[in-house]
């Protein structure tokens, strides 16, 4: 009986889904959960991640990340800028980062070894913010609603966060928030993120250098968390081409006083 009810709820939710278009013109299938519920999931996932830690207590690192995040967020539309944006730095060696619905950004200290200045760090953060503002998490959850994890996801939406965490490794994993995005999503986050960093006054050419650093650190292979990105050499070429196109926007931002000084 419980299974039948759950399936009925899933069918009802899927019926409420809608087709929309991203800022790059890509068709998206979204709407299995409301934006409010999505933000709640993101916020709880972030709480879980910080509880598990380990968090960096380095004040300089935390201020550095917060400065970059704030500079990027200031360039978002008002409805996205008004989210409760916050960041956390995790004392983890893997060069990783993520952003969650509701405006939550996590950065591993290992990323500082490959993102060697504020512009390169902004390239990573802007890419991750791109996933949030282009509703990629909404897309992932909408896909999942018809899958075997749907009942657990519905439990999360009902507020049963503790049980969900014990059953499957935590909210971040269970909701798919940290699973690799599709190649289309990753490419779109590259486009949106590079545009955002230029508008914020970060050099869009730094995205090319960042990827080259990532490849060098991985012995010529991309890190696992970027495994669904386009072919590395093609991606570098695309980043370079867009950087050249975005230099005027970057220079205009700098001329207009948007000159981040994060460290």
UniProtKB/TrEMBL annotation:
Keyword terms of this UniProt record: Hydrolase, Metal-binding, Metalloprotease, Protease, Signal, Zinc
UniProt record, GO biological process: proteolysis involved in protein catabolic process
Molecular functions per Gene Ontology: metal ion binding; metalloendopeptidase activity
Keyword Repeat attached: no
Coiled-coil stretches: none
Cleaved signal peptide residues: 1-18
Domain of life the protein comes from: Bacteria
InterPro entries: Mito/Outer_Membr_Metalloprot, Peptidase_M48
UniProt keyword Hydrolase, yes or no: yes
Cofactor: binding details: Binds 1 zinc ion per subunit.
PROSITE patterns tied to this protein: PROKAR_LIPOPROTEIN (PS51257)
Gene3D superfamilies membership: Metalloproteases ('zincins'), catalytic domain
Family to which this protein belongs: Belongs to the peptidase M48 family.
Protein name (record): M48 family metallopeptidase
């Amino acid at each position: 009986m419980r299974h039948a009810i759950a399936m009925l709820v899933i069918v009802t939710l899927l019926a409420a889904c809608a087709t929309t278009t991203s800022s790059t013109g890509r068709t998206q299938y979204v709407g299995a959960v409301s934006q409010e519920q999505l933000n709640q999931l993101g916020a709880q996932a972030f709480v879980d991640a910080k509880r598990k830690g380990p968090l960096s207590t380095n004040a300089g690192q935390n201020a550095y990340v917060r400065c970059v995040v704030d500079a990027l967020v200031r360039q978002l539309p008002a409805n996205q800028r008004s989210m409760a944006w916050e960041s956390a730095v995790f004392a983890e060696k893997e060069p990783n980062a993520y952003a969650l619905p509701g405006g939550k950004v996590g950065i591993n200290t290992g990323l500082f070894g490959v993102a060697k200045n504020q512009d390169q760090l902004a390239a990573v953060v802007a890419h991750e913010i791109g996933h949030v503002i282009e509703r990629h998490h909404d897309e992932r959850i909408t896909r999942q609603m018809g899958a075997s994890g749907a009942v657990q996801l519905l439990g999360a939406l009902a507020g049963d966060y503790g049980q969900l965490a014990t059953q499957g490794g935590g909210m971040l994993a269970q909701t798919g928030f940290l699973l690799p995005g599709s190649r289309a999503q990753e490419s779109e986050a590259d486009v949106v993120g590079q545009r955002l960093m230029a508008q914020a006054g970060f050099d869009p050419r730094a995205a090319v250098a960042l990827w080259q650093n990532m490849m060098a650190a991985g012995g010529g292979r991309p890190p696992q968390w970027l495994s669904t990105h386009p072919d590395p050499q093609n991606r570098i070429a695309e980043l370079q081409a867009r950087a050249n196109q975005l230099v005027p926007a970057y220079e205009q931002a700098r001329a207009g006083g948007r000159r981040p000084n994060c460290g």
